[in-house]
Design brief:
single chain; alpha+beta; 6-stranded mixed β-sheet; 38 strands
Length: 1612
Amino acid sequence: MARLADYFVLVAFGPHPRGSGEGQGQILQRFPEKDWEDNPFPQGIELFCQPSGWQLCPERNPPTFFVAVLTDINSERHYCACLTFWEPAEPTQEAVCSEDAAGREEEAVEGGSGRLSPGTSGPPGQLFAPKTLVLVSRLDHVEVFRNSLGLIYTIHVEGLNVGLETVVGNLLTCIIPLAGGSQLDSVEDGVRTISLGAGDRQVIQTPLTDSLPISRCSVALLFRQLGITNVLSLFCAALTEHKVLFLSRSYQRLSDACRGLLALLFPLRYSFTYVPILPAQLLEVLSTPTPFIIGVNAAFQAETQELLDVIVADLDGGTVTVPECVQIPPLPEPLQSQTHSVLSMVLDPELELADLAFPPPTTSSSSLKMQDKELRAVFLRLFAQLLQGYRWCLHMVRIHPEPVIRFHKAAFLGQRGLVEDDFLMKVLEGMAFAGFVSERGVPYRPTDLFDELVAHEVARMRADESHPQRVLRHVKELAEQLYKNENPYPAVAMHKVQRPGEASHLRRAPRPFPRLDEGMVQWIVDQATAKMQGAPPAVKAERRTTVPSGPPMTAILERSSGLHGNSARRLEVVRNCISYVFEGKMLEAKKLLPAVLRALKGRAARGCLAQELHLHVQQNRAVLDDQQFEFVVRMMNCCLQDCTSLDEHGIAASLLPLVTAFCRKLSPGVTQFAYSCVQEHVVWSTPQFWEAMFYGDVQTHIRALYLEPAEDRDPSQGWEEPAEEERSALDVASEQRRLWPTLSREKQQELVQKEESTVFSQAIHYANRMSYLLLPLDSSKSRLLRERAGLGDLESASNSLVTSSMAGSVAESYDTESGFEDAETCDVAGAVVRFINRFVDKVCTESGVTSDHLKGLHVMVPDIVQMHIETLEAVYRESKRLPPIQKPKLLRPHLLPGEECVLDGLRVYLLPDGREEGAGGSGGGPAVLPAEGAVFLTTYRVIFTGMPTDPLVGEQVVVRSFPVAALTKEKRISVLTPVEQITQDGLHLRSCTFQLLKMAFDEEVGSEKAELFRKQLHKLRYPLDIRSTFAFTLGAGHTPSRPPRAAKDKGPSLRTLSRNLVKNAKRTMGRPHITRKKYNPPSYEHRGQPPEDQEDEISVSEELEPGTLTPTSALKPSDRMTMSSLVERACCRDYQRLGLGTLSSSLSRAKSEPFRISSVNRMYAICRSYPGLLIVPQSVQDNALQRVSRCYRQNRFPVVCWRSGRSRAVLLRSGGLHGKGVVGLFKAQNAPSPGQSQADSSSLEQEKYLQAVVSSMPRYADTSGRNTLSGFSSAHMGGHVPSPRARVTTLSNPMAASASRRTAPRGKWGSVRASGRSGGLGGDVGSRLAGRDMLGPPQANGAPPDPGFLRPHRAALYIIGDKAQLKGVRPDPLQQWELVPIEVFEARQVKTSFKKLLKACVPGCQALESGPTSFLRSLEDSEWLTQIHKLLQVSVLVVELLDSGSSVLVSLEDGWDITTQVVSLVQLLSDPFYRTLEGFRLLVEKEWLSFGHRFSHRGAHTLAGQSSGFTPVFLQFLDCVHQVHLQFPMEFEFSPFYLKFLGYHHVSRRFRTFLLDSDYERIEQGLLYEEKGERKGPQVCRSVWEYVDRLSKRTPVFYNYMSCGPTATCPT
């Protein structure tokens, strides 16, 4: 029996102590005046009576009623029923608020508080003060409270002839039965009819089960207000411990909403802050960091706007607002969708009938109360589905004196297949679930509806999943039980309570609420108390039973998820392999081992392995020979490598007793156990794993303690599933709890001591086990131990609740006093001791171990660790004496002539790198990776040779290599070796030749050797000097090395430099050289014959034309010797072929030859990155070129590199313009300069130079005298007057519309040439690349739209420059040259793009998304093809301009990257000669080598270039050629392999061809002319061209058999 009401309180309005405008609540009277011993008076009732604050009102409001909830320090809830009415304010009360009255009226006008609105119920100026009747109770009977307080108010306001003291005294002495009416003998015991002495009758029905919450209609109202989705969000938020805030103008709605949400959480109890109605004075509580469920009046919504992590539910508006920073995990599917569907059926029964053609005439809808129970039944089923089988994961740690139960969270998640589910993970980690385990895990207790549901209805719920009507029927059945729990006797007569009349609050009361007689009320209470003391004590009737466990988790798992893809055949392979191992059939076992390792990826196979290994353990020990030991350890490591830190599938748990059982004899008295070989796994350093294992083993031993001897079994076999007839640990615990009250005190004490001793012995056992698996065999691997999950960070990893522990102090004293001399060993030992001590602290405190035993454990742990370290030292020493395991013989690679080994083979494993080739390819087949072999480092390459570890592949040899110079990325990795399954150091090497080596060093390769390999690799990749590269060291014996330069020559003058160059030239003069000839493939005799026009022969013989290439008498003798070598270069030979001028500077030939070959740069004095001989206009003198060069970057002034044989237009190249050049002239303002400077002279020379270029063209030769810039004065030049004659064509797209619209053959077999020129890329192709229609829009500069890209009257010269550089240039149609600004990409963009391309093609690991889509997406993201496209666009533009007769100057960046790419592509597209083998070689030698592309800098050949990284500019050009080759395969004499060959070897540093950055540097190193001399005997090829010639004589590997041959050798 229990009191209906504990306290009755009368609270009235009173003045605020600080004199503010608002008042405060004052307790006028409380009954009883003394606190009950079992229930002290709750503090703060005054605040909760008026949550919005105590204020006077101008009118008499109707009485209000609500129930507030207060929670005391013991988490007991007190229900405060508050009935508030208004009385005329007394004069003292009015005086309190008179000073504030004006301000309040203003507020009312402006829409402030509604309670201050003017009323008519009282005289003018009359104010009304609130007064509240409060009933405080620990019972939740809202309707009884409402009726009781209403009766008291009715007696007062209606003036009934009933004493209020009698009513209040009867209310405080009313005793009602406890919950559990079904256990009582009669209806009268479960139902209590009470009367307060005013002719009233009230019926109080006690719920059948007090564990089920009472919701009345609150859940149904919550769904009506917020809807299904919002309520589900709040449900998940409350379960995952988020902050939930309800807003409403109604206090009773706030109470009902909070009550409803808590009812939905059953069977979990909300254990955080719960305040259904929060007073305004306590709003700062909303800033608390802990979760809560709170209700606040909507009038204070503004104060809640700043809360960033609170979920706000507006009950009046029906919205739920979730902040961006809050993530509410949803229910796991399919439960989320199933729950949503069932809720919609309950709330809207007509939904299922809406589409019926003939709906039933009437549908019976549930009442609000019954609908409330149906909604709760849906959530009850949801929890039963979520937590089904939870009792099978409970660990019974102690039975006496009180049950101690722990939940194995990892096993529950693993067996349910919900390891990745964020919602369930957070629920299981929450405090609500911890309370659920401690409350409902008890095996012997009263059961309720949830226990029956989760134990017996699982199969039904699973069968009904696809039948909505069955689900609905089940929901209604559960709802009936819930309704009966709240209303066990609905037939009993209802309440009979008097109520006040209509509008009684508006009638003037005869007097204020009277002051009650305390003595009379106290006398009534005392009389009732004395009567109760004589009665027998009321005992809560409970019927305790053994809680049913329901079907085991395994049965649920088999039904839901099957065997996870592990067929019976795979399990049979595992069993056979283990049998072969223990039978000694090692050859058979070795054959099956790869298949076993693959099968062990599945959970079922891993469980099978553990079971089979247990069968071979006898008396906790299994001694194996070396081979058996290695096989067993390898399979164990394979099992453990996929275990997570929580070991949710129990694999590590089942292997834990095995690793201390399997062993081998190393020597007499020295035994090595398997645990010393399986330590490198994260699960061993996870505290939660050890705790779960400890509690599981303790449960096994506690169970064995109480079993009969006949049922007893070996506790070490606790991993096996118990037979069905055996009693579980929970059953044993239930029986013991039932018998506990019947035992004698001595027997009880004996059982408690036995259990405590069992826990203590297991703690000692686990201290030993943990030291086995945490102390490394080799103390030098302590670094790995500390890194593995961080033993030093385990304070935060453990979920221990023990805050004050002696573990830390004991460990500290152990570190200082243990006597360890080795600091590293001491560090490891100290970390292990601290880890074990924290573990012992937690489990022993939770398991009730005595403090004396705990102290003894802390003293014992350091000795255990020390003893094990000493044992391991002997084991480690003896294990090193074992004969090495027979490993495959190392295969030595075949080396090139001159290639030498720097580091001999280091044994490694080549691991899969994400490419299909290593995994059998997309068509299947055996996987060649992982492979076991060795890595060799030579002076030229990194080479791996080995064989696949899978013996089913056969005797295949795996060879992978790449040049050391091609290395772009080297990264250390830690990986599991595929054979031993232990963590080893490894390397990840990626090269720009699209090769990848992902290696793990074998355990025999020490860390010193691995580090030496890295250092040697770095040294070879980035040598200090170019002469240390393989191309130089290869033939060092045949080439005289360059003498070291003295210190004083670090900065030589130009004269000294010239002298050195002349000496080098003299040394190579006069030697016969090999004449280059056209390539004749072996199979076609008439292919590629020398051209008929002997005047344009490519090869250079000794019989040179006297007037053209022979040095004239105008040259000095030393210069003449240098010139003899320069004229043999590719540049000069190609100039002669194109008819681009002579070496003579005589005026007699100036008119006939527009261009001449100038030797002004023969000593590389003007531009060091240019060749010695250059093509310049005939009219420009050599002394003017020095001034012209100053206007361009790197002094790379415009020179002619090619001339069209048909239009006679020329192609020029240069570096980008400086600001003081022509562009600066065009940009300058009208500000004349006072004088003339050297820069002005340079600008004038530059204009003359460009005018000379224009004048040299045949179309404009007759007008050469008119449009000259020489007429401008020096002053104008100095002032940078904007020229009125220059015009600019702005290209938003690098390729504008085509000049002439021609059509060409389409398709793969199309032709590049048409009408003796490159016509295939004209016309429509240009229009397509431009992305424009035939008639484009008006130009940005105001020019009319033109289908021909430019104006019909073309300029004589187009200067293609960088858009950023030419920005702001004003166009003018009178000038004879135009500036064409284009957007170009920088070298760093090429480098970044290539890195992404390399990662897409050579990923390095298995892609998350398989298939071609992933590769294509990565390829697109790299933007490599975008850059290729842009280069081809610009090149086609230049080709079309040249074809139309206009000359083009390409003036981009520094003139050696994009400029080189563009001019090379233009010549390749325009001139068929360059599409031959010899022509392409000449093109590369001329444009790339002679014109100074920085091969060494872009390829990072030396240590100085390491920071700049690899930038594949030349490779990008080859890719462009490759794209053209793909579209026009019949136009090229060479094959695509030729391009790949050049692309590979331009980075390999095998040949000297692509070393250094210019001809100047090659002369300085003595490389430029060395290959011209005679060679005695066979020599290693130093030039890639020489190697190509030599290889072509043996096989036509570079020849393209689809080639149709060029139509003409030269374009004249």
